[in-house]
Sequence to fold (861 residues):
Amino acid sequence: MAEIPMAFILAGLAAYTVLAGADFGAGLWTLLAGGGPASRVAVRDHARHAMGPVWEANHVWLIFVLVVCWTAYPVVFGSIMSTLAIPVFLAAVGIILRGASYALRGQLDTSRAQHPIENLFALSSILTPFALGTVVGGIASGRVPVGNAAGDPVTSWLNPTSVVIGALAVATGGYLAAVYLAADAHRLGERTLELDFRARALVSGLCAGALALAALVVVRSDAPALFHGLTSDGGIAAVGVSVAAGLMTLFLVWRRHFGPARASAALAVAAIVAGWALAQRPRVLPGLTIDQAAASRPTLLATIIAVACGAIVLVPSLLLLFRLVLRGRLDPADTPSATILPPRTPRKEQNHLLAAFAAATFLIGVGMTVIANSGWVLALGIICLFACAISTFGLAAADPSQQTESRIHG
Amino acid sequence: MTGLLATVGGVFTSVDQDYLSQARQMQALSLAVHIPLVCFGIAFPAMVLYCEWRYLRTGDALFRTLARRWSKIMLALFAVGVVTGTILSFEFGLLWPAFMANFANVFGLGFTLEGFSFFIEAIFIGIYVYGWDRLPPRAHFLSGIPIAIAGVTGSLFVISVNGWMNHPGGFTLQEGRAVNEHPWSALFGNSFFWHEFVHMYFAGYIVAGFLVAGAYAWAFLRGRWGRYERTALTVALSAAAIAAPLQVVIGDWAAREVASAQPTKLAALEGLGQTTRGAPEHLLGWYNGHDVVYGIEIPRLLSLLAFHDPNATVQGLNAVPIADQPPVNVVRFSFQTMVGIGTLLALLGVVYLYVRLRHRRLPNSAWFYRAVMLAGPLSVTALWAGWITTEVGRQPWIVYHVMRTTDAVTEARGIPVGYGTLIVVYLALAGGVAWLLRRFSRAPLEVDRHG
Fold:
């Protein structure tokens, strides 16, 4: 049971890398816009638009990873966050800037004087994946001991493994973003943009592949234990899957089959996350196995129940969102496709009954809340106050102009 | 299982941090930035959906325009809330790793559930805001309902954690860390949690309602007073004006809960040095370490308010050693600020409701609209003051009577650098949001009427 929440964390981490990684990658492409077949402005606009409706949802995966980690493995969370405080803080600053650019996204389109600000946002989308990559490198190379800031504040994340994984994270994000953006351009029928992002995908895919190989070489000398894990049993299988999926993606992008390329690109990244987990198992931090790190049974059970129940709501919602996005149902429309309702004559409202109800719930609610100190009477009193609030709102928020007219007529 | 946990117990105990105060300020700053956005998460979706519902019922296109324009602001504020909320979750680990390592197994469940609320909110806010014109009207309205529900449940789960920090239970303490924990009952079987949640829920409507209404009150004073502005003001102000007077009743309940569960905090709120039978209430004034000086004394009122009995005995600060007392004047000043502003807002709400319901019109006086403009910033001030009251009033404990804040802090260096950086970044963020809202307000209505 101690391992199940870790499986959630790894799934969340893979989802965050695949989905939010691409959001950061899109920021990278706004910085490197121009030079391809499409114009600088077109590339920037496309990169900014395509991530629109999904950014918030993609980002929540990181929150999910954090909360499950601190609930199920609190000591691990405390150790990682205190030792790796610097890269975590840098990632946080990057996330603020990147999030701000999404908050401002609609308005940046129409604004002039945007480029310095947008470049700052784009820089933040290199900073964040790099910083988070160095965090992963610090954990994977065993540089985070158990304890409150027990590790070295600098070399725990500025070391060969961390740096190469950070660079790999940036390249992977750019690669994923290019694949997704090429697919979006294909759907929108933007031929020039499609070719532009296809070229970007091929180049960044090769870069990511080269960095992944370089990472293996670096890890071999810098973190032999991790290298051993990655080259034996489950580790080597996952690495193999990742290599195969990566090559497959390059082929699919080359042949302009962007839909399947999305899936195989995601698989390549997810396989690497799985490989890391298998390579390190059962050790989470040096001297701390997953069983030792796990919270006690009721908490693990509660986490599993919460995630299972949450998934029942989350999975259909996510499918709906991605379906709408991938079918272009949330793309900006030139002409509204939804019907506009015709005006109707409003029904006569039963204002007196509502007013009496509001007054009654107010008196009962206040009475019960003030008298009772706890228990059902108090709960009923609070419910009455809510009912009073809602019914009074119904009276007060009714259309003012309409009411003035009815008064003139009456 | 718990035996295994105990093998790593004790590693998160000794702490030597020179910048505890800066760490606390950094956390407070992040909360202060995030909490007004939470208010919008609680109240704004319901207000937007109300307008869209009116459109569906009457076919009145004005309500569609209103809902559409508000929904864009809702999305922008949500995106800012996402990042400021992320910063908070980072800071729990960056600043308070010992707190997390020793106790997150008890309260983490609340955040796990909140994570799912957050997911649902994020997914449907994307569908809702980008789905105008693209989804059939009823489907579009329905896609907004999960946002409103998740906005409420999200804050509910987070406040359940705060309720637990203030009134902890559901675990056994062993070598300074929680073992044998029962997270469900610790969070949701906690008597201290519900008043905090309801109080915050009403605050959400007060803050979001008055801030939104303030924008249209400004339009009134500038002579822009078409049907659009009147309707927008009516919806937003009605929400705030109803919540504000009812908040007085909820506040009374909250004060009684504090009186019974956290007598030291109550004594700090009121500056009550000695345990007193028939304790008086002091307005304004200053606590000098023994008593409130230069204040207006109202005999027996504290006993009456705290226990609904003018002769009740109220525990004073002298019941606990100085080391276990919160900074009294900070807590007391915040509390009085919250209560003072809350009372004014309640009066403003009653005035509005009287004119609106009795005379079936909006107030005509320019002074009323000036007051509404002021009410927005004041309600945010009251919100901050309220949270300072409860969180500084909890000090010196991070987990009430279980773990001291000094034992929770990180041993990592560089807190002042992080704090300074965060101030700069938040100032830039505030500037960005201000610029954004200004641009929203200047966009012509026609943009949202058709396209």
Residues 18-189 of chain B form one domain.
